[in-house]
Amino acid sequence: MLSIGAVLDVLRAEFPEVTISKIRFLEAERLVEPQRTPSGYRKFTVGDVDRLAQVLRLQRDHYLPLRVIREHLDAMDSGEAPPALPGTEAPAPEAADGPGPVPALEAAIGGPAVPGPRLGRAELLAAAGIAEQQLADWESYGLLAPGGDGGFDPEMLQVARLVSELGRFGLEPRHLRAVKAAADREVGLVEQVVAPLRRHRNPQTRAHAAAMARELATLSVRLHAALVQAGLRTRIGS
Fold it and tell me: What fold is seen in the domain 4-77?
């Protein structure tokens, strides 16, 4: 039997962003049910730890909300075949020498979005391991934005995790405004290129616009990374 601190140490080997608060939140959502000592301390079995790791993988790899994850695990517990997970049937091809397309750019021009349902506010906070005040600060700087229904698109979870990681190096939201502005300009540039094709009546032409947007997004990310590396090499010899 493991204490919650020992569970945290085990999970952090694969999920460095996980916190004790997040484990407690997942318990409150009935995704894991540790035993309690007479004095009230939690005691986790190896099976509990495996279940927590599975929940965290489903959040990280498939951007699933907790409700869907619970249904998935309940089906497995009852011996039923769980539903297919988003993104496991037909993974999109990726360039061998560079990162894949940027979902935000694709969404702006009508291309495919990141698979998976939208995340509620509490789900985003738990999945990213952040506090409400942090999220509110990031929203005030335009780094994250909910949809009209208050939910967050799956790529917002990745944004939250990256902003959180940058915060470990002392970078605050105000420091990242230039990054957000640059991303908005890239979105605008891609949209400008493919806009004439998107307005075409021919469905094949519109599909070609989406494919072109994905390629432009990939090239844009690779160019950005190359320019940053070149600049660092020039200035600090990295």
Answer: Multidrug-efflux Transporter Regulator; Chain: A; Domain 2 (1.10.1660)
